[in-house]
Specification:
With about 240 residues, chain A is mainly α. Chain A has helices at about 1-30, 40-45, 55-60, 65-85, 105-125, 135-150, 160-185, 195-235. Chain A starts with a helix and ends with a helix. Chain B is globular and about 65 Å long. Chain B has a domain at about 290-498. Chain B has a two-stranded antiparallel ribbon. Classes of the chains: A mainly alpha (about 240), B mainly alpha (about 500).
Chain lengths: ~240, ~500
C-alpha cells in the first residue's frame, strides 16, 4: 500500500515536471531568436562603468549588489561546513604521510605555486579589459590551497584563527564597506565616484579573489578532514 | 522617484550583514555588544524607513544609480514595510531569546559561534528580499536565506535535524532552479529583470504562461504549500527552537511574498486564471490537511510545525479572488487579508515556537505528555502560548481573526461556498490541535522541572504574543499602511478604509 502511494506520488511529480517541460519548449520556440536582451544597453553604458569588459561591468558595477550577496553566500557556505564538524575532531594527518614529501614533488611545487599565484593576480588585473576577474583568480588561488594541502605542505586541518577567518570574510567585508562609504558619499548605495570607479572595482576584486581562494581551499580541507575521520572510524 | 539621497532602508540589509561578518571574524569576543548594536541599528533603520514612507509615500531606490533595466531597484511601499516590520519584530525577540538560549555548555558554545553569523545573514537576506523589485535579485536573496536556513537547522546536531536540513537543501535548490528558469524566460521575452518593466512589456501567450508556471512551481515548494509541504515539519521541528521560530514566521513567507508581488505586478494581462484558481485549491487543501495532521502529532514542535502548513494555506486562498471578472473591491480585500495574515501568523507562530522552546528546555523532553502541569510552574510561558493560540484560532481580538474575516466577506460577496467552509473548518481544527496542548499545560499534575528556564526566554515569547494581540487590535493603522503604494487594481477596498 505504501509503495503504491509512493509510486502515485512519483508519477504525479513526473507528470507535473513533464507538463512544465512541454510548456517551456513551446515558450522557447515562441521567443524571438534575434533577441539580444540587454547586450546593447550594457555596451552603451560601459564607458561610465570604470572598466572595459562587459562581464566585469555587470558583475561589479551595474549589478554589484547581486555580487555582494553572492559573496555572502560563499561565506555562509564556509560557515555552514564548519558548523557541521564533529564535536571532537581528531584530525589525523593522513594527507601528510612522509611518502608525499618526495623531493621531486617539492621542487615541482616550488615552481608551480608562484606561477599560479602570478596567473591569479594577472586574471584579477586583466578582468577590467577581457575575460578574467575575481572569480577566475580566486579559483586559481583555491587550487594552490588544494595542492599545498594534499601534498602535506599545509596542515590538512587549518586552525580557524582570527587571521584565517579574516581572510575568508575579507571580500565581503571590503565590498560591504565600499557600499556603506559610497552610500555616505554619493547618496545611493554602490554608486562609485566616476573617476575612481576602475580603482574601486580593482580593490574589491582583489579582496574578493583572496576570499574566494581561501574559501574554496578551506571547503576542500573540511571535506578532507571529514574523509580522514571516516577512515579512522573504519576497523 | 530617483534623486533621493540614500534611504534608511539600506540599513535594514546592511546592519545585519555587518553584524554577521563581524561576528564571523571575532567569534565569541564582544558578542553581546555587537548583537545589541546590530539590533538597535536595524530597529532605527526600520523606524526611519517607516517615517520616510509615511511622509513621501511609496518610493523607489536605484542601487548604484543605474536604474532599470541596467541596475537593481528597490521598491519601498506599505506591503514591503509591513513585512519588514514583522521581520524586525520577530528578529529582535528571537535574538534576545537566543542570547540566553545558547548557554555555556561546550556544545552550546560551538552552536552559538555559528548561530549568530548565520542568523544575521539570514535576517539581512530576508530584508533584501522584502525590499527588492528585481526578479534575479530575488533569486539571490532566496539562495542566501535558504543556505543560511539549512545550516541553522543542522545546528541542533540531532540526526533528524541533519536529515531534515539535507532534504530542505535539495528541495530548495531544485525550487530555486525552477524559479530561475522562469525568470530567464521572462528576461528573454522582455529584456528586463525589473518587475514593473517586465509587466509593461510582457504579452499574454505561451511564453508568459510557461514563465508564470515555472516561477509558481518554484515558489510553491519554497513556501511549503500543500502538496509540497512535506519537507517542512521535520525541518522546522528538529531545528533549535529560535531557528524554528524564524523559519516558520519569516523564511516561508519569502516565497509567498515574491509570488504575491509577481502575481499582482504582472496582473491582469499575464496571469492565467487557472494558475490563481489552482493556488487557491492547494491553499484550501493545505488548511485542512495540515490541521488534521497537526491533531495527530505526539510531539509539541511537530504540532506547531504542521500548524504552519495549515496557516500558510490561508495565504494562498486569496489568489483566486484575483481572477478576471472579480470586482476590485473583492480582489483588494483578499489581497490585504493575505498580507495581514502573513504578519499575524508570523508573530503568533514565532511566539509559539519560542514558548515551546522554554517548555522543552524545562522538561528536557518534547512529547506532548511532558507538558502536563507545566502551566503552574511557568505561567508566563503558558500565557504566551494562550495569547498566540487565540490569534492562530482566529478568535478576536487576536491578529488571526481579521484576515480570515476579510477573506470570508470576500467569499460571501463572490458567492463562493468552498472558501467559507474551509475557513470555518480550519478555525475549528486549529482549536482542536491547540487545545491538545493547553489541556496538558493546565492539567493539575505535580511535576518537577529538569532545568528552570532563564526568565528572559519566557519574556521574549510573551513579548511576541502580546504584539500579536496588539496587531489584531490595530487593524486600521495596518490597513492604511498597506494602502501606501498598493499595486494597481488592489487598492479599492483599502481606499474605503478611514
Amino acid at each position: 500500500m505504501n509503495t503504491f502511494i509512493q509510486r502515485c506520488l512519483h508519477g504525479g511529480v513526473i507528470a507535473v515536471l513533464a507538463g512544465l517541460a512541454i510548456l517551456l519548449a513551446r515558450a522557447v520556440l515562441a521567443l524571438d531568436p534575434e533577441g539580444r536582451g540587454l547586450a546593447d544597453t550594457v555596451s552603451a553604458a560601459i564607458p561610465d562603468s570604470g572598466v572595459l569588459h562587459p562581464l566585469t561591468a555587470v558583475l561589479l558595477n551595474f549589478r554589484g549588489y547581486d555580487t555582494l550577496l553572492e559573496i555572502a553566500v560563499l561565506l555562509v557556505a564556509v560557515l555552514a561546513v564548519w558548523s557541521l564538524e564533529p564535536p571532537v575532531a581528531p584530525c589525523a594527518r593522513v594527507l601528510q604521510e612522509p611518502a608525499h614529501r618526495n623531493p621531486v614533488l617539492l621542487v615541482g611545487l616550488g615552481v608551480m605555486v608562484p606561477m599560479i599565484a602570478m596567473t591569479a593576480g594577472y586574471f584579477v588585473w586583466v578582468g577590467a579589459y577581457r575575460p578574467g576577474g575575481a572569480f577566475q583568480g580566486g579559483a586559481l588561488l583555491g587550487a594552490i590551497g588544494v595542492m599545498l594541502a594534499s601534498t602535506g605542505v599545509l596542515p590538512s586541518s587549518i586552525h580557524r584563527t582570527i587571521r584565517v577567518r579574516l581572510a575568508v570574510a575579507a571580500g565581503f567585508l571590503v565590498f560591504l564597506l565600499v557600499a556603506l562609504l559610497t552610500a555616505g558619499g554619493s547618496g545611493t548605495l554602490l554608486t562609485y565616484p566616476k573617476p575612481w570607479a576602475g580603482l574601486v572595482i580593482l580593490a574589491i576584486e582583489t579582496a574578493l579573489a583572496l576570499s574566494i581562494g581561501v574559501s574554496l581551499a578551506l571547503l576542500f580541507m573540511a571535506a578532507a578532514d571529514r574523509a580522514t575521520v571516516h577512515r579512522e572510524d573504519a576497523p | 522617484m530617483t534623486g533621493w539621497t540614500l534611504g534608511p532602508e539600506a540599513g535594514l540589509v546592511g546592519f545585519p550583514a555587518l553584524g554577521a561578518v563581524v561576528l564571523a571574524i571575532t567569534a565569541a569576543r564582544g558578542r553581546r555588544l555587537v548583537v545589541g548594536l546590530t539590533l538597535a541599528a536595524t530597529l532605527v533603520a526600520l523606524v526611519m524607513t517607516l517615517t520616510r514612507l509615511l511622509s513621501v509615500g511609496a518610493y523607489e531606490q536605484d542601487i548604484g544609480g543605474w536604474g532599470a533595466p541596467l541596475g537593481i531597484g528597490w521598491r519601498i511601499d506599505g506591503f514591503a514595510v509591513l513585512m519588514l516590520g514583522l521581520s524586525v519584530a520577530v528578529g529582535i525577540a528571537v535574538s534576545i531569546y537566543s542570547l540566553a538560549y545558547f548557554g555555556d555548555e561546550p556544545g552550546d558554545r560551538r552552536r552559538a559561534l555559528f548561530f549568530w553569523p548565520l542568523w544575521f545573514f539570514l535576517w539581512s537576506a530576508l530584508h533584501g528580499l522584502f525590499l527588492s523589485r528585481d526578479l534575479f535579485n530575488w533569486y539571490v536573496t532566496l539562495e542566501l536565506s535558504g543556505l543560511a536556513a539549512v545550516a541553522l537547522i543542522a545546528l541542533s546536531g540531532r540526526a533528524d535535524a541533519l536529515t531534515g536540513s539535507l532534504r530542505y537543501l535539495l528541495l530548495a535548490l531544485a525550487a530555486s532552479l525552477l524559479y530561475l528558469l522562469g525568470v530567464v524566460v521572462l528576461y528573454s521575452a522582455t529584456g528586463s529583470l525589473d518587475l514593473a518593466q517586465v509587466a509593461a512589456r510582457l504579452t499574454p501567450g505561451p511564453v508568459a504562461l510557461a514563465a508564470i508556471l515555472l516561477i509558481t512551481a518554484g515558489l510553491v515548494v519554497k513556501s511549503a504549500l500543500f502538496p509540497a509541504h512535506f519537507w517542512l515539519p521535520s525541518a522546522h521541528a528538529s531545528a533549535p527552537s529560535p531557528v524554528s521560530a524564524v523559519l516558520s514566521a519569516l523564511v516561508v513567507k519569502g516565497g509567498f511574498y515574491i509570488l504575491a508581488r509577481t502575481m499582482t505586478g504582472l496582473w491582469p494581462a499575464a496571469v492565467a486564471d487557472g494558475v490563481l484558481l489552482g493556488l487557491g485549491w492547494l491553499g484550501g487543501a493545505a488548511v485542512l490537511w495540515g490541521s488534521l495532521l497537526a491533531i495527530r502529532q505526539q510531539h509539541l514542535k511537530l504540532v506547531i510545525a504542521y500548524s504552519t502548513v495549515a496557516q500558510l494555506g490561508y495565504l494562498f486562498m486569496a489568489f483566486p479572488f484575483w481572477m478576471e471578472g472579480v470586482g476590485e473591491q473583492v480582489a483588494s480585500r483578499a489581497w490585504a487579508g493575505a498580507a495581514y495574515q502573513a504578519v499575524s501568523h508570523g508573530l503568533a507562530k514565532a511566539a509559539l515556537f519560542l514558548a515551546a522552546g522554554v517548555l522543552i528546555h524545562a522538561r528536557g523532553r518534547d512529547d506532548l505528555d511532558a507538558l502536563r502541569g507545566l502551566g503552574a510552574h511557568l505561567p508566563v510561558t503558558a500565557t504566551a502560548m494562550a495569547l498566540a493560540g487565540i490569534s492562530l484560532m482566529g478568535i478576536p481580538p487576536g491578529a488571526g481573526f481579521l484576515p480570515k474575516w476579510m477573506m470570508m466577506t470576500a467569499a460571501i460577496q463572490e458567492g463562493r461556498i468552498l472558501p467559507i467552509v474551509v475557513l470555518i473548518t480550519g478555525g475549528l481544527l486549529a482549536v482542536g490541535y491547540l487545545f491538545r496542548i493547553f489541556r496538558r499545560l493546565l492539567a493539575a499534575d505535580d511535576v518537577v522541572l529538569a532545568h528552570p528556564p532563564p526568565r528572559i526566554l519566557e519574556l521574549a515569547a510573551l513579548g511576541l504574543a502580546i504584539l500579536s494581540i496588539v496587531t489584531g487590535l490595530s487593524s486600521l493603522p495596518i490597513l492604511s499602511l498597506l494602502r501606501i503604494g498598493a499595486p494597481e487594481g488592489f487598492a479599492a477596498y483599502l481606499e474605503s478604509v478611514p
